[in-house]
Fold this sequence. Notes:
87% of the residues lie in helices and 0% in strands. It has 6 helices and no strands.
Amino acid sequence: MIYVILYLVAIVIANLSIAAFGPSIAIINAFLFIGLDLTARDQLHETWRGNHLFLKMSILIATGSILSWLLNRNSGSIAMASFTAFAATAIVDAIVYHQLGKYPRWLRVNGSNIPSAGVDSIVFPTLAFGGLLWGIILGQFLAKIIGGLVWSLVFRWYDKRISTRSLAEEGSNIQTS
Length: 177
């Protein structure tokens, strides 16, 4: 559930800040928020695989765009560009992530983030800003890959911490029984 919340908060903040500040904030957003979303999407892929993954991801992507629009009706074109870009990105990410299935999780996550970042970095600014802004496209692409790497390390630390805590609590419960 934490990854769903992180995903939604990040995409809404990214959309609203783009609506407010335009292309000038795009690369910062890409590092902080879109790298987070690409990486959270892979965490959710693991959680939802075999349990309506496509449907749940579609609802999640739509929810982020709808929330953005509800919070700022002037962000409609940004929310629609975001929805379209993330829908295309999710398809690419799912295919690549699945193809990397035999590799360690960190490699699947970061390996799938590379083509996903490419798709999102072309589709979103082209739709949101009405043209191919090559400096923003390249800057976003690199920022999403680096941001995704940073977030994958944070998530890895968090997952290990939760796993260790669960094992410690389980051991404590066994001793008190």
